[in-house]
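HUMAN: Ready with one sample?

ASSISTANT:
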Amino acid sequence: MFDGVTPDDEWKRNFRMSKERFFQLCEELRPYISEGINTPNYRSLSREKKLAITLYYLKDTGSIWMTANAFGVHQCTVSKIVLAVCNAICIHLCPIYLHLPQTVVQMRKKVAEFETRFGITQAFGCIDGTHIPIQRPLVDSQDYFNYKQFFSINVQAVCDSNGLFMDVDCRWPGSVHDAKVFSNSFINNELKLGRLPQTFTHVLPGHDKIPNYLIGDPAYPLTPNCIKEYQSCLSND
């Protein structure tokens, strides 16, 4: 793969990103995952191989045995590498790429993109939850058993009109309802306290100005900063 023999479509099937993006990400992670000169096998564990092992492991549901066999390393090596690379991404790259609007200009841009694409005024993103499967925990396992009948972590995510993540909350067991996750989340706290930049606008003359808000499904509470669809509708009017 690294010698340029593998076609681009094979890169996407194995790593879910293009070869160009792979090496760009590898360069951004260079200071944090470069090979350690004090380790016996540092020559075989280059930063490219570490990133490749991690992405290959994460591309589906993740299999340590399959990943280890594919790259010719031991299972415990895969486990250590995946943890190290994921920590490097979360600590050093997430603040750069994954964040809520920090200025009025950024908020206005998100709102404009959302209105241009979907025709909805003042929305700057969508919010929803998803269940990430996990093995049955040894402690308090009942808390992680969700309504879909498997063990999971309930992950809440906020994305903009282009599908890019702006906020992720992955602290809650699978049995916790989406509304509770939202009410205790960082983004809800920021919205309630007015810490996010706002761009108010009038839609109808003589009525209150509309703040920026998120769009959620019926599982979420209806608040000034979170709008959801009608739970029952008898007409299209």
Summary: The first strand starts at residue 123 and ends at 133.
